Amino acid sequence: MSLPPQKASELKEIIHQQLLKMDVHGRIREVLAETIREELAPEHQQLSTEDLIKALRQRGIIDDVMKELKFLSDVNETERTSAPKPSTHFAEREPPVLKKTNIDPTRRYLYLQVLGGKAFLEHLQEPEPLPGQICSTFTLCLHFRNQRFRSKPVPCACEPDFQDGFLLEIHKDSLGDGSKMVDATTMLSICDPVHMVLIKTDTFGETTLVASYFLEWRSVLAAENGITNVAVELLGVGTESKVSVGVLNIRLEMYPRLNKTLSSEITSTQFTLERQKTAEKERLFLVYAKQWWREYLQIRPTHNARLVKIFAQDENGVNRPVCSYVRPLRAGRLLDTPRQAARFVSVLGHERAPVIGGGGGKQELWCTRLAFLCRNKGDCEDHANLLCSLLLGFGLEAFVCVGTKAKGVPHTWVMTYGSDETITFWESLTGHRYLHRPINPDDPPLVEQPKPLYPYRTIGCIFNHQKFFGNCQPSDAVEVCVFDLHDESKWKPMSGEAIKSVCPPGSTSSVPPFPPLCASTIDAAVTSNEIEVQLRILVSEHRKDLGLSTVWDDQLSYLLSPALAAYELERTMGVSAGNEEFQDAVRRAVPDGHTFKGFPIHFVHRNARRAFATCLRSPFCEEIICCRGDQVRLAVRVRVFTYPESACAVWIMFACKYRSVL
């Protein structure tokens, strides 16, 4: 193929400009000088063109040039200077298509590549998935300095085929002059690790936390050419935190390359000093906590039986102060009100930590926030910690409460302390709110006492990111508890300075940084429609098995929408609205002599078959789905309400109308 002379000269000019922009000539001169110095000094032989090209290829310069020389007809200058990249990176399932990324030339970046895994022995017998077959997948989630990333899902295997790259921005304005390129010494002082969480998703969409790992990336600062390869051994979680689950091959690379690398002695000395400093702070806090606990027990011997929790184990089996699990979290524009935050936390799945074997004992595992959010479910402690963090972010004085429910079952919930000393309990698993009015046991019998509506029985301690109080009132029953936190005869406080020494931002401790929330990736309208279509098929098949025909009434289905919106509003804000209009519309749609029946139900998953099986277990719903009579018309409406982290509330309403035949 030959180009016209005008086009050829135009092409040459573009290539020339690109080579100048990349300073390829300067880089070739450096390589030439280095090659002559390294390879030709002893022999003084002639250097051929092939030798030079080989040297350029080895150093990746030819690859860099070829990557840059892309002629994109649909990318104009406005797109190149568009808004900064989103904090979350979701890779596609399709073969990767190289996209242009907005890179600030005055910033430092860490390019982290995951180049496959090995020794995931639990999947040794896993068969190769057939094309199009649904199989279990691994997904790797990363968090680094307020940036979140997610790999594309790969089939579970003994050697999972992870092939993903993530561009992590290191430089921040907070490190000084925003226009100044940060150097290796300054980067050495950034002790934030790269938090990596491996999630397994089974064929039913259920997620499992496989591993949680903190990657020390600063070893790349001492690496030659600014590139280092690391084999990361992932350990299990909970009771399996000492068992290896697999190895990830990771390549770290600095962009732009460092002019001057650090020596390995400097980096190792820095790591040792940081570990020693953290260990000393944690040791001093442990000494203080033991002294505090001894003093607490001396107040009353029965305090030994109260649920006063100072430390909790995370998914890696590391004991951390409970205050370190809470930190003010601002949700940006993803959540507008504290009650909406409570609703969001309640639609995240609830699942107890798995226990191997019987005995009925509760395995306690307080997840780091990234592990909880990526898995999209956790125990009551995870929900309470997240809700407390969000309420603190909204400017409320919030605390996590540790106590028991009915039958002495350990439980955690959230409390807000109003400026007018109003005490409100927030149940993180349901989003319900309860006002607390203490019963005075010294009142005469004729004095009417408030009846508590909350399910909580006892309370041992409360805490947030700055404060910790142990309940030292004569009774730990919630209904008689007085929340006068300034009265040390009722609540024994911990030293704020001691808490600050081991909880960020006042410490350089081993506590992992908290990730920001991510916007939902679910299209509410499309998902609602998909679930509704699947439910119609399931209902029709079920009725066919019973020998019944199915006629759908689309208009009646549509009329159910306001009711579902009202139910979600009531769950979120606690107010009911629009019921009169819904009832009026239904009366108009149902002719005289006909009967209308409706059944709403709520789920926090999007599995239509599972939802249908649950609905059939309700006699009211089964009566509607299996309705017999004259002129039977069925209706179903699904409404998906999306929340951050792709959490969702799914409302389904089945209805029918038929002529009553006596």
From TrEMBL:
Domain annotation CEP76 N-terminal: ranges: 10-69
Source superkingdom: Eukaryota
Chain ranges of the CEP76/DRC7 peptidase-like domain: 364-494
Function summary: Centrosomal protein involved in regulation of centriole duplication. Required to limit centriole duplication to once per cell cycle by preventing centriole reduplication.
Alphabetical UniProt keywords: Cytoplasm, Cytoskeleton
Centrosomal protein of 76 kDa C-terminal domain segment(s): 522-659
Family the UniProt entry places it in: Belongs to the CEP76 family.
Localization of this protein: Cytoplasm, Cytoskeleton, Microtubule organizing center, Centrosome, Centriole
GO BP of this protein: regulation of centriole replication
Primary subcellular site in the record, as a coarse category: cytoplasm
Any single Pfam family the record assigns to this protein: CEP76-C2
InterPro entries registered for this protein in UniProt: CEP76, CEP76-C2, CEP76_C, CEP76_N, CEPT76/DRC7_peptidase-like_dom, Papain-like_cys_pep_sf
Keyword DNA-binding: no
Protein name per UniProt: Centrosomal protein of 76 kDa
A GO CC term assigned to this protein in UniProt: centriole
Gene3D superfamilies according to UniProt: 3.10.620.30
Segments forming domain CEP76 C2: 102-259
